[in-house]
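Example 3.2
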Amino acid sequence: MGGHNAGSPYAPHSPEETAAMLDAVGADDEADLFDIPESVRFDGEFGIPARDERTVRREVRELLDRNDKLVEFLGRGHYDHYVPSAVDHLADRQEFLTSYTQYQPEIAQGFLQALFEYQSMLVELTGLDIANCSLYDAATALGETATLAARVRESSGSHVLVPEHLRDGKRGVLENYADGVGLTVDSYPMDDGAADIDALEDAMAEDVVLVYAESPTVRGVIEESLAEIGVLADEHDALFCLGSDPVALSIIEKPAAVGADIVIGDAATLGLPAAYGMGLGMFATRESFLRQVPGRLVGASEDESGRRAYTLTLQTREQHIRRERATSNICTNQAWVALRRRDFGHPGARPRSPPLPGVRRADRPAGVGDRRGPPRRRVRHPRDRRPPATALRDRDQRRRDG
């Protein structure tokens, strides 16, 4: 192109080129390209009398005070919550706010360290071995889980089982992902807001590749039968995915202890206000699925001087390797949002809250576990009487070999 208009480095066309294009389409000026009714066309005046800041604040406050003071339950997964002011101040630093993907570790060590710490927090909360540094939201994390299950299952299968009570948006995204790899999404019944274990057992079959459960459920119920769901999935050689919330994971039993292979959810509850649908998909899994993890992973190593250093590693996305070898075509993540979640989790960013009555961090709260009584040892399938950890490792090895 021959240049650009003065004062606008983002306009690629010179006035002569613009005039030539307008002439080619028979328009006199650029305004002729838009059909804006006169009644809504901006005439250069807003018609709002000038006010000082204090007056505007007072009028807005008086207007908002006319609203009823109600608790909002219709967030569809996006709810208002407390975010410490330190999160905004840290995340708004220029080196974080203007950063793109951290492809150059030599100039992005601070951001990479923050993402590594975010991954470490998820590993601690879930009890699993690997966590990526975020996906778009919980819905895409569930979709990526389904495609992962289809890749690693050692025999053929095409069915994914999800709870009957599942948000429409999450199920819609899952079905889009599943359709691309030839999977079918089916539902299992719920009983009073929790999974109906007997009905789930009837729905299980050899062609099930993934069983998905949530705790808390969309009805706000703590799912007490997670261990039983894990056993059913294991008996049918299906993966068990648990959808949860990082706040809930801080007090309920770790997913790894009930046999979960993958944990997903929306981590935006930590560090992100209700922001018009913006989310932060968390994704954690077992080490045996390391090379199947979608999105980005930050790893820790040493530089040539022996100092600890961080870098993006095992990048198996479509933009890095051949399409047929890629685990996912997801081509971005929520790095800045993950940074906010990490800042929220930093001890200096929030006051220490008192413990819940009768609940310690390492303990299982009352009501979480087997609904028929105190927590029991997980029942293993008769074919496998080995310790649970050994059985899981052997199962993961079979899937890798397959």
